[in-house]
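Lecture notes, unit on binding sites. The following record was shown on slide 14. It pairs a sequence with dicarbonimidic diamide.
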Amino acid sequence: MKAEVAVVPAEPYAFELMPDRCGLLIIDMQRDFLEPGGFGEMLGNDVSQLRRTIEPNRRLLQAWRAAGLLALHTREGHRPDLTDLPPAKKVRGRGTTTIGDEGPMGRILVRGEAGHDIIPELCPAAGEPVIDKPGKGAFHATDLHSILQHRSISQLIVTGVTTEVCVNTTVREANDRGYDCLVLEDCVGSYFPEFQEMGLKMIKAQGGIFGWVGSSADVIAAIGGG
Ligand code: C5J
């Protein structure tokens, strides 16, 4: 049976959304990255640049759930014994406080710690897969691809943080695995405005070399929400 298609305005051209074949993938909306007093802010970052994405994500997730569609969430983090933490990742940046150390919201990027949790505004609902990922990309060392394949998902709407790091890495991984990705400008964020701009430009450049860029309002309208 042919899947139903809804045309969503996007760049570099309209995205043909097939809601039953599409997963909403929300990347790393974790307390340590987004909340005042978290690890991100401790490093000197302006968390307001990420917090502006919370409300659009919340509205989108609400509409997505109301339409009965599949939402998935990711969290970047490591086992408490850090056996899945590459030594190179641990020392990168030469920080005095790094992954696994005690931070303002528990041990930094360690599963089970408060800072590793998804922010309450976007708390996963029962039945929504949560992908715990040790890398920047959501496909690396996870079962995300299997979960999507089992549900015949071939498209992803990608939101979350940060645009140039985990969002971009995941979109590139997804693209190489054959998924069509639509990234929503108002639902992705970077601590650095110039990386936000370039991170999105890189996705839609060259005829959509990694995917499409659109907005949450257009997706909500396409699925009959709003
Ligand atoms: C993410 C990071 N989620 N910036 N992590 O982008 O280290």
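Take-home: The chain has one domain: 6-77+118-222.
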